[in-house]
Amino acid sequence: MKLPKPDPDALAYSAALKRRIGDEIESAGGWIGFDRFMELALYAPGMGYYSGGARKFGASGDFVTAPEISSAFSRTLAAQAVQILALSAPQMIEVGAGSGRLAADLLLELERRVALPERYGILDLSGELRERQRATIGQRAAHLLERVNWLDRLPERFDGLVLANEVLDAMPVHLVRWGNEFEDLENPAIFERGVGWKNDEFVWSDRPAEVRVLERAKALGIEHPPAPGYLSEIGLASTDWTAAWGSILGKGALLLIDYGFPRHEYYHWQRDAGTLMCHYRHHAHGEPFYLPGLQDITAHVDFTAIVESGFAAGLDLLGYTTQATFLLNCGLTEILARTPAEDYLNYLPQAQAAQKLISPAEMGELFKVIALGKGIDEKLIGFAQGDRSATL
Ligand SMILES: C[S@@+](CC[C@H](N)C(=O)[O-])C[C@H]1O[C@@H](n2cnc3c(N)ncnc32)[C@H](O)[C@@H]1O
């Protein structure tokens, strides 16, 4: 694997986190689940990838998200936000707000549409990002900063719109391996792949899966047992998080945008090495043990599991479609048309960026938008026109 070399400070930072995780593995008796490894690598206080000082977003970081590609993304999302806010309450919470770009551009567009929420709460696991979010909103929309507040935890009750872009994929997952020896094809052994610590290095280590992981793995309803050695992920953290909103939300909606698939595609027999992915300075690879704290670790989202956990918690499915369909339904084309095509110096870069958001070869199809909610009876505009490629 050829990746850019980190500077000595970054290497020392990563070595300290590696030691911290190694210590935890030792004190846990030599093994932790991959979910715990991912949690520490990303969120260990002051040391994890998101909770420490790594640059993360944008051209000088490790990956680029839709709000960073183009403000047209957030401005288009605003059309959907206007409707949900009008149908529920004039309040928003953005979860995992990253650099703050989405918040700033969305608020500016809501102002333009005379539909500003009274409060815009930001909830992020990373305290380090708070300062960055405040600075971004201060630069781009200083006069709206007074509406923004930062939350330390999920609220007890909430009415309004909850927005999360690329957050579910950043929640820890369990790794599951279906056994190598299939004496009983209908009932293969199911192992949990965790992390051990040997000679100061992380090593993969499989154990019989713990009860919740086992139950979920068995309930996947995979039609044919996957091939021996089939490896995939189970995202209990993202489904628990979704379910938590069932008792928080009075009237309103969760709008979640992320890359992933419905279950039949996620656990397709050909996807036999799962979806785990690491990002380091715009290089994508599959080695989660590489430089903990300096690289992002993600897994695709099983949207069927998100819907099931939402249903079980009393949420309705308000819509599910691809990012391309959602953005076009919400008026992406009209937003782009605000810049005349003759003004090609401004128009061309915007059109190219928009193309990235909707092209099937880029983010348009892999990324999905799902809305779950309570007390919303009207059809949401983002899901008004169907899309045959996105069914649960
Ligand atoms: C990939 S980044 C996406 C950032 C931003 N939404 C964007 O689109 O640019 C994931 C973000 O989610 C946050 N995050 C992950 N799990 C979270 C949770 N359970 N609650 C709040 N924030 C979370 C991380 O700290 C990080 O800021």
Note the topology:
Layout: H1 8-27, E1 32-33, H2 34-43, H3 66-69, H4 71-87, E2 91-95, H5 101-112, E3 119-123, H6 127-141, E4 148-151, E5 158-165, E6 174-178, E7 190-198, E8 201-208, H7 211-219, E9 231-234, H8 236-248, E10 249-261, H9 263-266, E11 277-280, E12 283-285, E13 296-298, E14 301-302, H10 303-312, E15 316-322, H11 323-329, H12 332-336, H13 344-358, E16 367-374
Parallel strand pairs: 2-3, 2-5, 3-4, 5-10, 10-14
Antiparallel strand pairs: 1-7, 6-7, 6-9, 7-8, 10-16, 11-12, 11-13, 15-16
Helix pairs in contact: 4-5, 5-6, 8-10
This protein binds S-adenosylmethionine.
Residues 50, 57, 65, 67-68, 95-98, 102, 123-126, 129, 165-167, 170-171, 241 line the site of S-adenosylmethionine.
> How many strands, what sense, and barrel or not for the largest sheet?
8 strands, mixed
Task: Enumerate how many helices there are, as a single number.
Answer: 13
Order of helices and strands: HEHHHEHEHEEEEEHEHEHEEEEHEHHHE
The SS-based structural class is alpha/beta
Ligand roster = S-adenosylmethionine
Overall outline:
globular
Ends: how far apart? 36 Å
Pick out the low-confidence regions.
none
Strand content: 15-25%
Overall pLDDT score = 92
Radius of gyration over C-alpha positions, nearest whole angstrom: 21 Å
